[in-house]
Amino acid sequence: MKKRLNLSLLLALCFTVALSAQSNEEWGIASYYHDSFHGKETAYGVKYDKKAMTAAHRELPYGTMVRVTRLDNEKSVVVKVTDKGPYKRGRVVDLSRAAAERIGLIQDGLTEVKLEVVKRGTAAPEKPSKKAQRKERQASTPSSYDNTSRDRIVTDAGNAPAPAEKKVASNTASKPAASETKPKGQAKAAAPAAQPKLVGKEYQKYGLYKISIHEPGEKGFAVQVASLTNYENVFKQVADLQAKWFDNVLISIEEGSRMPSYKVLLGPFKEEAAAENYRKNLLKKHKIKGFVVDLNAIEYSKER
Questions:
Q1: Which domain, by its residues, includes 92?
Q2: Residue 35 and residue 159 in contact, taking contact as beta carbons nearer than 8 Å
Q3: pLDDT tens digits, residue range 170-206?
Q4: CA angle 138-139-140, nearest 5°?
Q5: Fewer CB within 10 Å: N-end or C-end of the chain?
């Protein structure tokens, strides 16, 4: 009877450990922070340091230590969770630049990884004193509010920043003033607006799509993957790339003999060698053929 009881306890313990181990593992896509976020506050109110071994995760609490392992080359790094995110479909972790370099993610931009919880965090970070917060606010107040953004930027390829994503909530958000509090009996607040949906294979010729056009902060090199002659094919090509998790897409509109030429590129990269390595990975992992182009050598028409 005693042996049966001990055996039952042992089986129950093994089952509990198995469940715990399962909940401590996760698979998905990893990306990394763009350098422009260096020194800015995370969702937990601490400063992001690109040289530190840190990461962002949607659910794991602050201070959790996580081992991130690439599935293709088995390189791994242990990082500390100091931020919330990422909020793009399929992604499970954003790594600091130092951590991304450790597993060779800088040139690839995105990669499939396995996450393993080494030690769970339990406490929130210590908040700085009110005096220190006042000094920080004064130092961070810009002289002009033109082109300023509080969004976190995460990069997908080399040094190219991906479109910024709005944070839904932050632990550092200020409480509403007494005059803004909702009196008793007032109707419930309206439901939040629907979140944008990533369009991939669902792209249709006719429909409503939100487009955001930006000039890249710097040029360099890129990998050209298509050359098209009409808008519809351009949109379809971009949608297909989005379906494969590419959002470092560039469109070069160049003058043709009879009509404009729309060239679809991925990048940019500061170094030609980085672009060439990215081209090889595109062919190997995604069967996408392309070639490296020098963005600085492209001449555009002066016509407006």
A1: 22-119
A2: yes
A3: 444 444 444 344 445 444 555 555 656 667 767 777 8
A4: 95
A5: C
